[in-house]
Amino acid sequence: MSSGEKVTVNTRGEREVVITRGFDATSTLVFDALTKPELLRRWYGPDGWTLAVCEIDLRVGGKWHFVSRRPDGKEIGQLGVYQDIQRPERIVNTESWEDWDAGETLVTTELSDRNGKTTFTSTILFPSQEVRDTVLKSGLKHGVEASYDKLAGVLASIAENIK
Amino acid sequence: MSYAMTASRRLDATFAALADPTRRAILARLATGEATVNDLAKPFKMSQPAISKHLRVLEQAGLVSSGQDAQRRPRRIEAQPLAEATEWLERYRQFWETSFERLDELLEELKLGRKKARPKKSKGEEK
């Protein structure tokens, strides 16, 4: 059952990327789905990926460690430390990718509950503007989707005109 | 979202090159066919040196190459790096889009009080 809600991805300030999404559920449920391994395993990651490892020590200073297994069997690890936890409103944690040396990001996730509907806002703070921009900007001011549409448009004309 | 470092560097260069609207417009123009610096300068109402500067960034990112004709040096678009960048963006968006759609379903189930979580596909081993 799709809610029809869309993910938005925007840049903010010099070093941040903000992801938002609405959910038709209370913030308590969303918080649990974000922090309980048995629930995370059921939704986290693209189709065909599985969370082979999902360890969460949900307390300030506690570590988390995910290993995602892609359909081709390759595994990708993410890990970090919790810096702030306020159930069901806010989680702050560090995050880095085991095979990607772009550095550590700081992720602040906020859940705003209004009449049982929750707005999820995740702010990713990159170590430098350079890292954020080189990886993500690419005209992303209007969101990943808009940017993707733009690139898709360019690619479509390439496909028509080259070969 | 995981790439070998060389691929990651190449993506960085591609994204940095694509971050500028003039460079995206140059690419869109080149997607319709080869063009010289002169051809490109006209519609953009920019000086040739300014266009050349943008072209250098695009060439360094591997998005544009120069043709055989030594005098005219027509530029053409190179599709491969763009395809890689698009694939990366699509993966990034897909990562959240598909995850959240699945989360919608899970939340519906939790709301109904069926709290017994069924394992997704393969059962993950608790470590």
Outline the structure in words.
The complex is a heterodimer of chains A (163) and B (127). Chain A is of the alpha+beta class and 163 residues long. Chain A has four helices and eight strands. In chain A, a hairpin with a 3-residue loop joins strand 1 (8-12) and strand 2 (16-23). In chain B, 61% of the residues lie in helices and 5% in strands. Chain B is built from five helices and two strands, in the order ααααββα. In chain B, strands 1-2 form a two-stranded antiparallel ribbon. In chain B, helix 1 packs antiparallel against helix 4 (48-60), helix 1 crosses helix 5 and helix 3 crosses helix 4 (48-60). Classes of the chains: A alpha+beta (163), B mainly alpha (127). At the A-B interface, strand 2, helix 1, helix 2, strand 3 and helix 3 of A face helix 1, helix 2 and helix 5 of B.
Number of helices, where a helix is a run of at least 4 consecutive DSSP H or I residues of chain B: 5
Rg from Cα of chain B: 23 Å
Radius of gyration of chain A: 17 Å
Give the overall shape of chain B.
elongated
Q: What characteristic shape of chain A results from the CA principal axes?
A: globular
The greatest interface here is: A-B, 61 and 58 residues
Q: Which residues of chain A sit in consecutive blocks of at least 5 with pLDDT less than 50? A: 137-159
End-to-end C-alpha gap of chain A: 41 Å
Could you state the order of secondary-structure elements of chain B as H and E? Answer: HHHHEEH
Question: End-to-end span of chain B in angstroms?
Answer: 24 Å
Beta-strand content bin of chain B:
under 5%
Task: Please report the total strand number of chain B as a whole number.
Answer: 2
Characterize the main sheet of chain A.
Answer: 8 strands, antiparallel
The quaternary state of the protein chains shown equals heterodimer
Q: What order do the strands of the largest sheet of chain A run in, or round the barrel if closed? A: 1-2-8-7-6-5-4-3
* Low-confidence sequence ranges of chain B: 1-5, 121-127
